[in-house]
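Repro:
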Amino acid sequence: MTDPVPKPDNPTPLEEILTSLIESHGPIRVADFMADALGHPQYGYYMTNSPFGEKGDFTTAPEISQVFGELIGAWLITAWEEIGAPSLFNLIELGPGRGTLMDDILRTARVRPKFLKAVRVYMIETSGRQRYEQQKKLQDAKVPVTWATEMHDIPLAPTLIIANEFFDCLPVRQFVHTGDKDKACWQERLVGVNKSSKDGGLRFLLSEELHEIPAGAPATAKPKDIFEVCEAATGIVHEIGRRLQDYKGRALIIDYGHGRSGFGDTLQAVRDHQYWPLLAKPGLADVTAHVDFGALARAGRDAELMVYGPELQSRFLTRLGLEQRLATLIKTADEQVSEQLRSGARRLVHPDEMGTLFKVLCMSSAGLGTPPGFDK
C-alpha cells in the first residue's frame, strides 16, 4: 500500500518553495515543476530518496534480472570490437541507478580482458545520494570509474553510451490544443497555486499566450489533445552526436515510451510501486513521462548519426540470446533460484510486463554496420 497523501496543512519544503515562487512570479511550466520535483538540490526526489528496488518506489530491469545486464555487457563488448577495439575508450552510463547495470556489465566483460584494460567508465549522476550507492556497488571494480554531472565534462575519445530508464526522467513541456477542427491553437500547460481551495496546493492551468503547433506534433490534433516536448532530450542527443562524429562509437537507449510521436498526457508520479497524485507533495514521489522515441530518432538524424530502432525490448533481448543465457544459468541453479530467473526473464520480455512498453534505440557513428539486436 502506498503511504497516504500528507494533509494539505503539512506541505513539503519543496511545495512551500514552489508556492512562494509561483505567488511571486506567476505559474511555472510543467518542465520546471518536474525538474524541481526530481532534482532540486536540497529537496528533489532523487536527492532525498533511495528509489530503486523492492524497498524503494520502483524496480528497473537490472534489478529484476542479472540476465539483462549480462546481455547489455555482451552487446557493449561487440560494439567495442565494431569500433576497432580501441586501446582506450569511454564507457558512459547516463542515470546509473544503484550501479547494478554497470556492475553486471563489468562482470560480463571479464571474458574480454582487453576490453577491461581499455575501458574508462564515466557515471553521469547529479544526486550525491545515488553516487554513494553507486560507489558502494562498484568499489571492487578493477577499472577506472569517474563520476560527472554532465556529459560535456568527459574527455573526447571513442565512446560507448548506455542509458537505461534515463530519458523518462527528463522534464517535458506540455501543449494543449484549444482550437477547433478548423483552427489549431495551442496553449502551454502550467502549474499554479490552487487559490480556489481553502486547502491550497498546486493545480494545472493554461497559459494565456498562444503557440504555433509544436515541432514534431502530427497534423491530426483534436481539441484538448496534449503534445509533450522534451527539449532536454534533444540537447543530450546533440551532445551524443558531437562525440560520435569526432570519434567512433554507439549509444544504446532503453526506456518506456512510444515509437512514434503522438498525443497524450503521459506524466505520472509513483511512490511505493503505486501511482501517486501528480502535483501532491513534490519531492516525495518519482515523476516521469513516456519517452518519445520518434523525437529521439529525429534528433539523432539531425545530429548526423545512424539511427536504428526503436525496437521492442522483448525482440531486442531475445535476439541477443536471452533464452540461451537463461537456460545456461538454470542448469546450475537450485529450484528456487531457477524460478526467480524465469520470473525475472518473463518480466523483461512478456507483452503484459516490460516487453512491448519498453523500447530500444541505437545511435551510431557513420560507417558502422547494423548493431546486434536490430537485425531483422
